[in-house]
Amino acid sequence: MGPTAPVWYLVPGLGADERVFQFLRLEEEVHVLRWLPPQSSCETLPHYAARLAANVPENQPCWLVGVSFGGVLALEIAQLRPLARVVLVSSFTGPHELPWLGRMARATGLHYLVPPQLLPRLPRVAQWFFGVQNGREYQLLRQILRDTDPHFTRWAIARLLQWSGRTMPTIRIHGTADRLLPAGAAHSQYRLSGGHLIIISQAREISRILNQLGAPLIA
């Protein structure tokens, strides 16, 4: 069979939604996999990913594009959808790529002591961590932080820090100044100038990369 038009499934980062993708310009069919409420505080990532995967047809060749925590879910969904290919943007593949603070929290449970409501109250601190410029990027970050569900955040951080990782072929796009996941650039095929939210600041270049990747998709 000949080339088929790519189908894109986009998975936003922790606490974010389709707003982080608003500046992408992807060709062909695009779907955003929106977050679902966790069924319990102990729901596992594979179980949660299976619920998200219900929106991705099993027999459909597609691309899963996951941003940050969304990349973790993209890797988990790909275990259930063998025709899916994965692109990680500002994400990681296992605990070996966590910064020292993340590794310490993973080992000690330190994250349980930090209230998830703290970061929205400190937007300028969040701006520094996310490497966001003033203007539309900062305003969007403030809106996302304001709208984040603290219960979902607590569940997601716990699952993320306990995640053992996935080893599979992936395309990776990462910011060279990413403060949240600084190790990611060294493992990425595409290194772009910027911080953790390059999905916004480098939307044009990421759109170009994705459209180029999607062009040769074969059924």
TrEMBL record:
It holds the Pfam family Abhydrolase_6. InterPro entries: AB_hydrolase_1 (IPR000073), AB_hydrolase_fold (IPR029058). GO terms for molecular function: hydrolase activity. Keywords: Hydrolase. Signal peptide: none annotated. It comes from the Bacteria. Residues 10-206 form the AB hydrolase-1 domain. This is Alpha/beta hydrolase.
